[in-house]
Amino acid sequence: MDASNPPPAQEPLARDDRASGSDGAVLTVNDLRVCFAGDRTTTTAVDGVSFTLRKGRSLGVVGESGSGKSVSSLAVLRLLPTDSAQISGEILFAGQDLLSIGEKQMRNLRGNQISMIFQEPMTSLNPSYTVGDQVAETILRHRSVSKAEAWTQAVEMLRLVRIPSPETRARQYPHNLSGGMRQRVMIAMALACEPQVLIADEPTTALDVTIQAQILDLLENLKSTTGTAIVLITHDLGVVAEACDDVIVMYAGQVVESGSVEQIFSFPQHPYTVGLLGSLPRLDEERDELVAIGGTVPDMTQPPAGCRFAARCPFRIEKCAETPPMLEVNPGHTSRCWRTPLEELADEF
Amino acid sequence: MLRLLGHRLLQLIPTIFILSLIIFSLQHLLPGDPALALAGENPDPETVAAIRARYGLDQPIFMQYLYWVGGVLTGDLGLSMRHNLPVTTLVLQKLPVTLQLAIMGIVLALVFGVVGGVIAAVRRNTSIDYAANVVSLAGISVPNFWLGIMLILLFSIQLRWLPASGYVPLSVDWRMNLATTVMPAFVLGTAIAGIIMRHTRSAMIQALESDYVRTARAKGLSPTVVVVKHAMRNALTPIITLGALEFGALLSGAVLTEQIFAIPGFGKLIVDAVFTRDYAVVQGVVLVTALFYITLNLLADIGYILANPRLRS
């Protein structure tokens, strides 16, 4: 690995905007665990994940495929198959634990207080109904309005997500719209009831780069106008840098590092984060080649004892055979690594 | 959409032409000489010649074809040699009977097939699903004639609830009509119900795993709305085509069932006609059945277009 992550000279940024502390939390996840029972094996997809989402902020959840990002978010909305997924822990929203409320109560929250948009705008809309109908359906479900009123609101939502001539577009079917337009429709649908939390699962992955930037801009804008807190799930650190305030980095079902965007990007504390940043292409630096992290993600039917990243870690020591706790590096910045703080090890690269 | 429909209608012209050629020539491939069959035992050549002349059998074959087509176009399907009646009259007599059985059969099949398939898909891998699979497999596997005989044994002979055979027209007595048609309609429906159930189940499972169903659930919709409005709407479009094809098959496939229940329908008409080499009747019945098939296919295509927004625009 190259020395692209020198220890920052400055102190980590002060976080005045987060001073409200736990008062500002809209969604708190504590020790979330999700297991999928197979015929012979049990896969632990999410293993003790905790995070806090604060009002009006966006939290980036970063990790490679299979790190448990999407499963965690589906668990928050309780959309995982109930017959195979076993969920434990705590998901606190508006003073109640979402894992202990009834299914009917949960349905009243979905699409209303907490909404979600997905990776595939091409297949996430129902091909048999007009997009206007599909947006209006959410409004009709959660608000006591007439059909005509719901339709008017749906058209307004489509205008809000900057779909040109929304009156005409509302009467069209998903196949008449481009991928970017469909993702805008999904966002309109998700925000129609002014939810407190929007979970966006890889919302830009399936889109062209130019459209990606537009969608991220839109989310950023809507966040500031509506105050909706956003969980942005992505494998793309570039997206996180552009659109998020806080970040959690996930590896093999666990959070390995958590902090503000500034902390994570300028002062990464977990070797996995360091590796991810090293594999990020940048225009402002000269690099001969991108650095890949050697090895592969562990088999989650039998996760390794101790640190899960140890087998791929250049900083591995004997102690890594023991499971590391989340260690605080700086206020608000924690890392699951025995060797934290890492900057002292820079010469080991 | 109109373009698609026009295209579809144009395709009918060659189809119907080829169909008419096949129907006309098929009967000439049947062994035996109808004139000889009609002339009785030890006929003298003059009688045979007279019969040939009367039915146009002495004409060149293409003339026979043109006569036949001309007749068909004016509603004249020829004369039944056996019944000495116009084929059109016979067809109009028997068609309503078979049509009624086919409609009852397909309605039963659709109701049981779709409901069963949807429930099996929603309750996938539970005992309900396994039970539905066993029932649908039984419906497909059990031969019609055996099921018919078993039903007669049970409901007519043991329980004496229903008449074993015969047919009473709807216009005469609707209760008796129902009593005489319910068993054959059930027999006809079971096999198709099994097929429809299996198709519905797999299409529903696919729909329930789709992204748009996940979206519907993420909106907070109830399971009923998710299943009926979002999943079924998309899963059932292929069932339109399947249902139409199976309905067509019922019209021509009721032969055995009509024999078992002694119902004077299309099936019985064509079987009798084949055995007595009553060519005109065979042609008439096959033609009407084939035209039904073509019409049903066309209707299915139109229905498919109407149900599918991607084809409509």
**Count of distinct strands of chain B:** 0
Structural Rg of chain A: 21 Å
* Strand order, largest beta sheet of chain A: 6-7-8-3-9-10-12-11
- Which CATH top level class of the domain at 90-275 in chain B fits? Mainly Alpha
CA-to-CA gap between the ends of chain A? 6 Å
Provide the succession of SSEs of chain A: EEEHEEHEHHHHEHEHEEHHEE
Provide the CATH architecture of the domain at 90-275 in chain B.
Answer: Orthogonal Bundle
The CATH topology of the domain at 90-275 in chain B turns out to be MetI-like fold
Main sheet makeup of chain A? 8 strands, mixed
Q: List the quaternary state of the chains.
A: heterodimer
What is the overall number of helices of chain A? 10
Gyration radius of chain B, rounded:
24 Å
Total beta strand runs of chain A: 12
Beta fraction of chain B? under 5%
Characterise the protein shown here.
The complex is a heterodimer of chains A (349) and B (313). Chain A is an alpha/beta fold. Chain A has ten helices and twelve strands. Mean pLDDT of chain A is 85; it is low at 1-22. Chain B has a domain at 90-275: Orthogonal Bundle (MetI-like fold), CATH 1.10.3720.10. The N and C termini of chain B lie close together (6 Å). In chain B, helix 1 (2-29) runs antiparallel to helix 14, helix 5 (87-122) packs across helix 8 and helix 5 (87-122) packs parallel to helix 14. The model of chain B has no long low-confidence stretch (mean pLDDT 87). Chain B has helices at 2-29, 34-38, 45-54, 61-73, 87-122, 127-141, 144-158, 174-208, 211-218, 223-235, 237-253, 255-260, 266-275, 279-307, 309-312. Chain B has 313 residues and is mainly alpha-helical. The A-B interface holds A 77, 79, 83, 107-112, 115-116, 118, 120, 123-130, 137-138, 141-142, 173, 175-176, 186, 189-190 and B 125, 210-212, 214-222, 230, 233-234, 307-310, 313.
